Amino acid sequence: MTIRLAHYLRMNHMPHMWCPGSGIGIIVKGILTAFDELSINKNDLAFISGIGCTSRAPGYLDMYTLHTTHGRALSFATGVKFSRPDKNVVVISGDGDSTAIGGNHLIHACRRNIDITMIIVNNNIYGMTGGQYSPTTPTGAKAATSPWGNADHPFDVSALCKAAGATYVARAHVGSGVQLQRLIKGGLEHKGFAVIEVLSNCHTQYGRRNRLADPIDLINDVAKKTVNVRQAVKMSEEELEGKYVVGLIHKDESRKEYCEAYDEVIKRATASR
Amino acid sequence: MDKNKNIERKVVFWPGNIIVAEAAIAAGCRFFGGYPITPSSEIAHVMSKRLPEVKGKFIQMEDEIAAMGAVIGASLTGMKAMTATSGPGFSLKQENIGYACMIEAPCVVVNVMRGGPSTGLPTAIGQSDIMQARWGTHGDRPVIALTPAYSDEVYSETIRAFNLAEKFRTPVFLLIDEVLGHLSERLEIPDPSEYELIERPRPTVKPEDYNPYDPSFGDVPPIADYFSGYRYHTTGLNHDMTGFPTTSQELGQSEQERMIRKVMSKVDEFESYEEYMTEDADILIVTFGSTARAAMVAVSDARAAGIKAGLFRPITLWPFPEDKLRELSKNIKGIVVPEANLGQLIYEIQRVAHCDAPIVGVNKVGGVPIYPNEILVKIKELV
Ligand SMILES: Cc1ncc(C[n+]2csc(CCOP(=O)(O)OP(=O)(O)O)c2C)c(N)n1
Question: What is the ipTM metric for this complex?
Answer without folding.
Answer: 0.97
